[in-house]
Amino acid sequence: MAHPLEQKIGQVRKRARLLLALYAAGWTLSAVALTALVLALLDYVFRFQDRGIRLMCSGAVVAVAVWTLYRFWYQAFWCSRLSDVQVAQRIERRFPSLGDRLASTIQFLKQPEVDPQAGSAALRRAVVIQTESELAQLDVTDAIEPRPTQQAVAVACVVLLVAGLFVAAAPGNARIALARLARPLGDDAWPRYYRVEFLAPPTQVAAGQDFEAELIRDAEHRLPDDVRIHYRYKTPEGYEEESESMKWLNGALVARKESVNRPFWYRAEGGDDNSMKWIRLNVLEAPRLEALSLELHPPEYSGLPVEESQNSIRALRGTKVALSATTNKKLKAARLLQTDAEPIDLVIGEDGYTVSLGTDAGEPFVIDKSGQYWVELADEEGLSGGADERWEIRAIADGEPTVTVEEPSTNIYVTPGGEVAVRIAVKDDLAIRDVALHYKRSDRTDVEDFAVELFQRDKPPPRYDAPGLLVSGKLGESRVEEYRWQLAELRLEPSAQLTFWATAGDYLPQTGKSTPRQITIITPAELEERLAQRQSLVFAELGRVLKMQQDARGQTKALEIQLDEVGRVAKNDVDHAQGAELNQRQVTRTLTSETEGIPAQIADYLAELRSNRVDSPDVERKMTAILDEIERLQSQNLGTIESDLTRFIKAAQTKLADAASESAGAQAGEELKSAMASVGANQDHVVSSLEQLLGDLSRWDNYRRFARDIGQLERDQQEIARRTKELAAETLGRELKQLDEQQQADLKKLGSEQIDLSRRLEKIEQQMSQMSNSLAETDPLAASTLADGLHQARQRAISGQMREASGQVERNQLGQATQQQARVAKDLEEMMSILSNRREQELARLVEKLREAEDELSGIRKQQAGLRKKMRDAEQIADEAERKRQLERLTRQQKQLEDQAARLARRLQRLQAEQASGSMSSAAGKMAGAGQSGEQGDAGSAQQQAGAAEKDLEEAQQQLAERRRQAEQDLAREQLARLEDSLKSLHERQQKLIQETQRLENLRVEAGRLSRAQLGTLGDVARGQQGLESETTQLADKLMLSEVIHLALDGAATRMSEAAELLDDRQTGAKAQGAQEAARQRLAQLMTAFKKDQRPGAGQKQGGGGSGGGGGGGGPDGNLVLAQLKLLKLMQQDLNGRYRDAVAAREDDPRGAGRTISEIAQEQGKLAELVLKLSEPAVENPEDTPEKLPDVREDETSLDDALLESLELDDIPLGEGAAGGESPPEVPAPEPALTPAREEPN
Q1: How far is CA 589 from its chain centroid?
Q2: Collapsed DSSP state (helix, strand, coil) of residue 485
Q3: Which long-range contacts (CB under 8 A, 24 or more apart) does 1003-1008 make?
Q4: Is pLDDT of 1184 > 60?
Q5: 3-class SS of residue 431
Q6: Helical packing angle, 4-46 and 121-136, nearest 10°
Q7: Which of helix, strand or coil describes residue 1049?
Q8: Any residues with CB less than 8 A from the CB of 1144 and at least 6 apart, and which?
Q9: Confidence class of residue 1175 from pLDDT cuts 50, 70 and 90?
Q10: Which residues touch 77 (CB under 8 Å, ≥6 apart)?
Q11: What secondary structure, in 3-state letters, does 393-430 show?
Q12: For a FRET experiment, which of 383, 772, 788, 932 has its CA 20 to 30 Å from that of 197?
């Protein structure tokens, strides 16, 4: 039996062997499993197809297994057997306290007890016993370290766990991977990731058509990025192959081969799929069109005819196409295809060789958009064709009408009573049906928009017979609509806004819309401020241009000095010239550009004046003068400057190019000097002209400033009056001493402000007086305007009224102060009206000044005639010394008269009497010649020159008289233009007075007499009638130049005066009412005579179509004569009626009837005189203005006939009793031979 120590040693040995076996097993499993796992994953990822690679992978697994068996099982386990002594030594190393006793003990136990060589047996037993006792206290199993074994087992477990996870996740793939490793030469294969398969692979194709094959792509058919298609062709030598990559097209892999003419086989490979079999493609003849005919049926609304078309279609959108064709093969199906459209089945003929499609088909061929179309054919063999032959479709859209608001071109600001000239350009591809103006009001949000119809075509659109109009571009219509928009009719308040746009419709129908514009309503004060700002901008821009021109002149002046002093030109001189050229171009562009330059600013300024009906002829004249001066500079100087600068630069560059050294420069020849001298001279002229223009404008602006200052004074006065009324409500009925301190302070402040206004006005009056004196010679009309305004201010004592109102305010007499302030405001308004220099006022002053000039010219003529006579008498003096003295004296008188004539010529030029001014200048020159001849003692020559001067004066007298008559006509027209509103007001007030008189008469008849209150009302009516008579008389006096109208108004005023006297005598009966009614009828006659023509085409709206323009009409002079003739007819009818009434009343009241007939006879005589005057031809000298001679044609009707025919119009209402009865004894009068009114051709 083994010793216990040996038993323990044996236990330790067994444990060590067990751990060693586990260690070897763990690393063997780890290495083999990990190798197999890695190789399986690589095989899974890369899908090894090569059997050699698979064999190498399997060999790698075997090699790792063999290596681990050798390394861990053979070397580490099998070859490492331990003896008891070795185990004991291992234990001793683990437990150092044993020393080497355990190994010795094990050896002692192996020796026989009686072995003589072993030493003492007792000692050995003692050692054994001691060792056993020590070993009993120790756990000898700890002598074996288990950690390496644990690590090996842990690694093996992890590797097996990972492998197990892969197997659990994909058991099929794991099985295939192990099988491929176990059988590297076997047929075990991975499932394919990619699957390459054609979608309906074509097996036949028509000769010449394209081959196209597409791969299936879905969840079961995964495609790699790169797929190659292989083609195999049969050749005499055998087979040849070619391949190419398939291309991605719209998300699909596609192979395409153009124009296939021989059969072939094809297959596709990609990714891990190379299993596709070869597919054969046969090439056959395809069906095709042999003849194609098309017929176009345009939309009905277009009016275009039916016409044939080529294969490429160009037609209006909506056109229907009738198609017919023949084919080369018998068809099974045929379809018409278009780009991005559904196919249309064609009708196949009975023989199968024809196809057609009518316009009445269920699915017709309609041109809707541009693109391509083709006919797809399929024969009985299932072969398709025709898709390779395609034709273009160009669909011409009938676009909506193009609408442009040309005027106003921008957003504008207008006063409530302004007029907006709207100009609308409309263009349509075919025909315009209607045009309208739409607008929205900011103060009428309840209405979406308002519309004004400008054009409406009632008849259907035109029809066309000629083919090809659409292709030739000869279709379309354009027109321009003009509309005078009277904003007063809308009754807009300031700050309101109008947003307007234009629309136009065609016959599709569709509507085009313009870009919206905005009109902002402003007060007259705001308008005046805007106009002043815009005027200042124009002046500032002129000043800026002058500065630029001066800078450009400085550059060219330096070049002139360089050329004169040095005589050479260098490169930097050319650079300076180019800089001057750029500056000069900017000057020209700013001065002449009609889109962004000064002319554009002036055009907008004048348009705003017209839109707001600002009657300011001097402003228009000054702005027009600026434009005229700019135009003159452009034609005479600016163009020459630029061309000369360009010529200088080119010539200088040429000389520098020819020179040996650019730094040394080139010799400046006469060409360069003359070019630069011309530039400088023209620039000097431009600078001088702009300086003079700005100087004149500055003086004129100072003159215009007075109207703005008075307008501001008026607004300030109205503000003080408003505050005075508010304060009066607080202090009403209280004495000054009863007011609190604040109220007394408010009164003093108001009074002080009123005094300040008085001082401002006095200062303005002083400046006006100085300006009037300074302008007396240079601008007599402006001086006259200032003088009239100053006279108004001093006559009404406006400043004194202001001071009086100030005292009343400070004394708390606010009722009286309010009345005084109202009078001051009214006087200031009248003064501002005078200074605003409206056209009527300007024309009145011009007529007055021309009459004064006529008188002065008449005096000069008389003096010149006297001088000529005296010169003739002096020529007869025999005594030479006496004759010389007389000639010297007459020469001095002639020079004085020459100076007077020259001054008058200059004044006539400023009075816009150019022809008379020219004749006066000629006369002055001949007077100077007469004076020189007189100084030389040549009496005969002096007399001849004086006679020639006298003839020039006579001609000037005639021309001045004609200019004065023209100004009088202009004044009359201007007055008549405002007459309608005045007549309407007078007529309405007269009608109210008649109604009130009738009411009082009815009360008198009912009660027998009028009460005190009713008599007071009657007195008010009488005073109202007197006031109306006074206003009518004033209006008649203003219209003295138009004698017919003056006579009519004077007759109305006479009747009013009679009515006023009767009413003042408390008579309200038939006689008073008859006089009132006679006055009303005369006013009604005037209104009827001047009523605007309401026939079609005579309104505010004007339009023009694409095919022609509108006609003409009578000019202003013709309209005036026609109105006077109508008035004469009405007055004659009134006389006829009155005469019949007087004749009928002879028996009852012979004396009264006789007086009436006598009055009628007098009036009849006046009418006859007026007809005679109207029939007199105008005194003119046609030879002076041959360009104004009328174009006489035999086939045209004269204006005389037209005006006389107008007297027979039936639309003029006749007076009562116009039918039947006797006619008064009329004074014979010839039929008027009227002079045709001149007007510019349209």
Answers
A1: 22
A2: strand
A3: 1004/1068
A4: no
A5: coil
A6: 50
A7: helix
A8: 1221
A9: low
A10: 17, 20, 21, 24
A11: EEEECCCCCEEEEEECCCCEEECCCCEEEEEEEEEECC
A12: 383
What are the beta bridge partners of residue 320?
Answer: 297, 366
Number of Cβ atoms within 10 Å of the Cβ of 250: 6
Share of the chain above pLDDT 70, in %: 81
Q: Which helix (H) or strand (E) holds 1034?
A: helix 1012-1038
Answer yes or no: are the C-beta atoms of 268 and 192 closer than 8 Å: no
Q: In terms of DSSP bridges, do strands 313-316 and 391-396 run parallel, antiparallel, or are they unpaired? A: parallel
Structure tokens given for 939? 């009496």
- In this structure, what token pair is assigned to residue 174? 């794991």
Give the CA count within 13 Å in the CB-facing half-sphere of 277.
2
**Distance (Å, whole) CA 629 – CA 326:** 76
Question: Using CA atoms, how far apart are residues 261 and 758, in angstroms rounded to an integer?
Answer: 109
Rounded alpha-carbon distances, angstroms, from residue 468 to 295, 304, 602, 761: 13, 9, 47, 77
- What are the beta bridge partners of residue 117? none
Give start and end residues of each alpha helix (H) in 978-1011: 979-1007
Give the angle subtended at the CA of 1113 by the CAs of 1109 and 1117, to the nearest 5°.
145
pLDDT at residue number 517: 92
Q: Is the dihedral of CA 400, 405, 411, 416 positive or negative?
A: negative
Query: Which residue is listed with tokens 């038939």?
Result: 1070
Longest dimension (CA), the chain: 212
Render pLDDT for 716-763 as a digit per residue (tens, 0 to 9): 888 889 888 888 888 877 788 778 888 888 888 888 988 998 988 888
User: Does 1103 score more than 80 pLDDT?
Assistant: no
pLDDT score recorded for residue 915: 84
Distance linking the first and last C-alpha atoms of the chain: 154
Q: Give 486-524 pLDDT, tens digit per residue.
A: 888 888 888 899 999 999 999 888 999 999 999 999 887
List the one residue out of 955, 1077, 1067 whose CA is nearest residue 1001: 1067
Say yes or no to pLDDT of 464 above 60.
Answer: yes
Q: Residue 908 in contact with residue 862, Cβ under 8 Å?
A: no
pLDDT in tens, 836-894: 655 556 667 677 778 888 888 888 888 888 877 887 777 777 777 777 787 778 888 88
In whole numbers, what is the pLDDT of the chain averaged over residues? Answer: 79
Hey, which residues does 499 pair with through a beta bridge?
Answer: 440, 518
pLDDT of 285 above 90: no
CA atoms within 13 A on the CB side of 121: 6
**Where does the pLDDT of residue 1232 fall: very low under 50, low under 70, confident under 90, or very high at 90 and above?**
very low
DSSP alpha helix (H) spans, 1039-1178: 1043-1064, 1070-1089, 1116-1144, 1150-1175
As a whole number of angstroms, the distance between CA 346 and CA 363 comes to 10
Contacts of 829 (CB under 8 A, 6+ apart): 714
Among the listed residues 828, 830, 804, the one whose alpha carbon sits nearest the alpha carbon of residue 818: 804
Phi, psi of 1044 (to 5 degrees): -65, -50
- Which tokens is 980 given? 């309608």
Counting Cα atoms < 13 Å in the Cβ hemisphere of 497 gives: 7
Distance CA 850, CA 864 (A): 20
The amino acid present at 817, given as its one-letter code, is A
CA distance to 342, 547, 554, per residue, from 579 (Å): 66, 15, 11
One-letter amino acid of 812: N
Helix/strand/coil for 1195 = coil
Asked if residues 426 and 481 have their Cβ atoms less than 8 Å apart, the reply is yes
Residues 6 or more apart whose CB falls under 8 angstroms from that of 17 comprise: 77
482 with 1101: CB under 8 angstroms? Answer: yes
406, amino acid identity: E
CA distance 1145 to 1147: 6
CA distance 1009 to 976: 44
Alpha carbon distance 97, 89 (integer Å):
12
